[in-house]
Amino acid sequence: xxxxxxxxxxxxxxxxxxxxxxxxxxxxxxxxxxxxxxxxxxxxxxxxxxxxxxxxxxxxxxxxxxxxxxxxxxxxxxxxxxxxxxxxxxxxxxxxxxxxxxxxxxxxxxxxxxxxxxxxxxxxxxxxxxxxxxxxxxxxxxxxxxxxxxxxxxxxxxxxxxxxxxxxxxxxxxxxxxxxxxxxxxxxxxxxxxxxxxxxxxxxxxxxxxxxxxxxxxxxxxxxxxxxxxxxxxxxxxxxxxxxxxxxxxxxxxxxxxxxxxxxxxxxxxxxxxxxxxxxxxxxxxxxxxxxxxxxxxxxxxxxxxxxxxxxxxxxxxxxxxxxxxxxxxxxxxxxxxxxxxxxxxxxxxxxxxxxxxxxxxxxxxxxxxxxxxxxxxxxxxxxxxxxxxxxxxxxxxxxxxxxxxxxxxxxxxxxxxxxxxxxxxxxxxxxxxxxxxxxxxxxxxxxxxxxxxxxxxxxxxxxxxxxxxxxxxxxxxxxxxxxxxxxxxxxxxxxxxxxxxxxxxxxxxxxxxxxxxxxxxxxxxxxxxxxxxxxxxxxxxxxxxxxxxxxxxxxxxxxxxxxxxxxxxxxxxxxxxxxxxxxxxxxxxxxxxxxxxxxxxxxxxxxxxxxxxxxxxxxxxxxxxxxxxxxxxxxxxxxxxxxxxxxxxxxxxxxxxxxxxxxxxxxxxxxxxxxxxxxxxxxxxxxxxxxxxxxxxxxxxxxxxxxxxxxxxxxxxxxxxxxxxxxxxxxxxxxxxxxxxxxxxxxxxxxxxxxxxxxxxxxxxxxxxxxxxxxxxxxxxxxxxxxxxxx
Length: 792
What we know:
Layout: H1 10-18, H2 23-30, H3 33-46, H4 54-66, H5 75-83, H6 90-103, H7 110-117, H8 125-138, H9 140-146, H10 152-162, H11 168-183, H12 188-191, H13 196-199, E1 239-242, E2 248-251, H14 255-265, E3 270-273, H15 283-298, E4 302-307, H16 317-329, E5 336-339, H17 344-356, E6 360-363, H18 367-375, H19 387-398, E7 408-411, E8 426-430, E9 444-446, H20 448-458, E10 463-467, H21 474-483, E11 490-494, H22 506-514, H23 529-535, H24 539-549, H25 561-575, E12 577-579, E13 581-582, E14 585-590, E15 599-604, E16 617-622, E17 625-629, E18 649-652, E19 657-665, E20 672-679, E21 690-691, E22 694-695, E23 704-711, E24 735-743, E25 755-758, E26 762-766, E27 776-781, H26 786-790
Parallel strand pairs: 3-4, 4-5, 10-11, 12-25, 14-20, 18-21, 23-27
Antiparallel strand pairs: 1-2, 6-7, 7-8, 8-9, 13-24, 14-17, 15-16, 17-22, 18-19, 19-20, 23-24, 25-26, 26-27
Helix pairs in contact: 1-2, 3-4, 4-5, 8-10, 8-11, 10-11, 15-24, 20-21, 24-25
């Protein structure tokens, strides 16, 4: 089914057509809300709502799309020069952009600006003809050789270099005429495509020395933090807030505010990781930590761990402790641990100041009424109440004299804005709930929209980094800091981390846990960081994965789970010792080995273990009774099968070749219950197949019995969150428990959290459910690597 085109705003389209844009460009502009807003503002600032000629219109469009953000205060000055035709060519406009980009919001001298842009410089047709003649004289031999294949753009560039303010149309006309005068009419040969031989340079036969091209740096080696500006550069316009009455607020720090900030911070980078203590952290938070802690570390700065604890009903001490534990586990060291509640007094005082400045009011609408009025873009009946009245009511709210739900403090923003985050957001609400950190001192609590930006400013954060869903809150973030004359951090949004076959919505995760679809917040199938840790995933592999995907603003992609698994394998391959476990044992009797004989053989912990390093080996008993995987035996052999079959030999890893001589079947005549085999003590047999195995430590003694939990993708679909009935997509085989696996004796003393590679099976970790009587292993990841094979 074809996608329907979005309806075009007729009013905006007419406005853009009036300034001379062609219909296609005008429609494309209307489809882009950001460019539409910028161009509309430019047209109004230039006072050409009734229209203008196409030349001026095209220049205005360029201003709307390319004007330097750090110098928006000077945009109207440039527009006056364009409308009056003092700046009338793209070259002059580019020069103006370069000038303003260099000076930023600082004052400037008009004569310096006019000189840099060629204002008042008139280049005559005679001057253009003379310079074109000079260029043709310089390039005559090449032009005669290449004829109409000559690079005209290069000729125009040479003229422009000598006459930067010349009219480009007249220059092009002169160049075309000069070409005709020199070459005459185009011939058929001029239109033929040159052969490959003619394209080759004359010295093609000369052999150049071979140069070794260095390999491209891996994704992990690239520095993702180069995109962020230095603290001293935080004088540029952060954002433009478009108000419904037509005026535009351009938010930026004053020189005085920035100088005060830099004096306090010493010019260092200050970031913050601000989780809400109302749940467990997931892998998306790992990216947030990497961005904020990583930037501070890379720049030699500081990163706060700040608990965003403005809602006393949702926060728990359990979550606060968990967050601190996970931050430490992820390898990050906070500069300081703070709470939004540490600033409740300062936030209250700023709210009082906000009321005094006429930017906040006490409102008595219910939640439903606020929602209805916002949908209708209507002002609250109490919006214009006297400042003194709001001050008294806010004090009454603070003293607990007004019932919960009967009053809120709202910011006076713009109820008719196109941005819903400017609809008089709530700054304070009443909650008669003790606070986990602040106690029972307060019964009014600040909202996220009020507290987040103000605490950023109070902590002198240089870079306030968050995910893209907060982008529309930029307007309210900077509006509030602007009206309170507070320092404004640099805000930058990056894409959320989405991974296939899982959900990371806090609401969905909470439902999985509370309705017992999984076994708690640290269930190894979840993408919570506690779950990943319990599964045996290392923090370094998570950080490597996050660094590899980069810090982009592209919000349209979901990262495949196998990409994360690639980084997990890379890490565990270096640190996890090899060992042998048989999940589904099948008994093999070595008939030519006496019952009373047990051999202690050397097995490698690492593939490249040096022979003289005893610490790189462990002992495995080899006796009359060994066990192999049931899947490693078939009654019928085939060419592509390397397991054991009647009359066939295989090599037992680190031990001897064995040959199947007999098979014992159950009463049904099909189920294999035991294999009889002979071993080759001389090892002259060279079978292709190699099997892992576990033997009885001595005749009649059962091998070490362990429980193994095989974890797989929690959901069958790649994007279960998009499904209406997403719970129906749960993978019924996401957790398989094998209670009676056999392991080699050396695993008996394994500690909780210790990782191993079970040969031929995957990577496993000792689970916290292990007891002295029985070890429990969780599968971290299989050995298969689809991402690595497909190419990183």
